[in-house]
Amino acid sequence: MSSSTRDTPSNERRITDLEVIPVAHTEPPLRNSWGAHTNVAARTIIRLTTADGQVGIGETYGDQKIIDALERARSLVEGMNPHARKPLELRLQDPMTYGALDTALLDVIGKEVGEPVYNLLGGKVRDEVEYSGYLFYKYETEAPDESHIAPHAVDSPETMVEEARAFVDRHGFSTLKMKGGVLEPDEEVRTLKRLADEFGSETPFRIDPNGAWSVETASRVARELERSDLRVQFLEDPVPTMNAHARLKRNTPLPVATNMFVVDFDQIAPAVRTDAVDVILSDHHYWSGLTGNVRLDDVAETFDLSVGMHSNSHLGVSMAAMTHVAAAMSNLQYAPDTHYPWMVDDVVSTPFTFEDGSIPVPDDPGLGVDLDESKLERLAERYEETDPLAYSDVSSMAAEYAAGESSVGRSDWLPNKPRW
Question: Catalytic residues, which ones?
């Protein structure tokens, strides 16, 4: 620690201002088992400022629920020492709200002491973080500037191969995840086989139907995948409940992963007791921030569970946070997911690029990214001018995605589970 940091009075380190900045960014009409994305989605940027002018940033979901919760936390945050995070977590009793603040507080501390965030989490165990190429069936993108990649409709195995080829050629991904629960299960299996024909059967694949299959259907699909020469890393949330996951696991040796039914620490014990999952997909947005993710990593290892990382439609601040915490998680056995290649907009000065499907871990103090004020202002204005897709839990997500079907003429869409 530098002498200037040691000599800084504690009152000068205190948080004096919490800014909660809703933004709206463009994204393509990606499909899932609940419905579809609309062309504008919401996120929330958090900016903390200390008495001596240090700034820390975070990012989280964008619906009114999380915005209101962050505003209610203002009286607890303003005036606090950024190092005193545990009392804030206990007072909030809200892992998602705390998660957004935890990231920004760690960014402040890292800049204050001149260390990257991963060192505040115990140190990095990898110099770069490999990510999976996240493939979606999708509707045609209406305007060319609404998609960096695959602007055409992706609604068949053949068009999915075209999309995947663009992902691999442009970003170098070697692990491919496919969002399922959109086409008939047999057609999605055929899609995976076509992908294996294109990229090789040794390529690691994942499929995520978001609970759209019954146990019987998922068991049949699993048997078909077992008979193939596909390298299936895991089935992610193939069935709609934790109990259904436990039943499925009795029928297949393929690993089963979840980010729908084990999303907080209280749910780990019943998942272990019923042998419902093999892989927990972490997410710093709702697992009590970056420190919560590291805690989850340790708990999962205790119970011989593997860890991966869930993704949502995030911007560059979350991309930085995901990379730092993934670098510090020794039990992270699967390449994290990311929507980032789909994003057209960003709020950071220097957007991330993938090198052979990976991102080098930033070594600058804090998260290693800065906000671009002009981009931030433009996306904040768009939030005020539009009605963006916004959610912060599974139920609100299902409602928002179902409503998104109306934009493509499917106003009678119902997100029933299981569908097959």
Answer: 179, 310
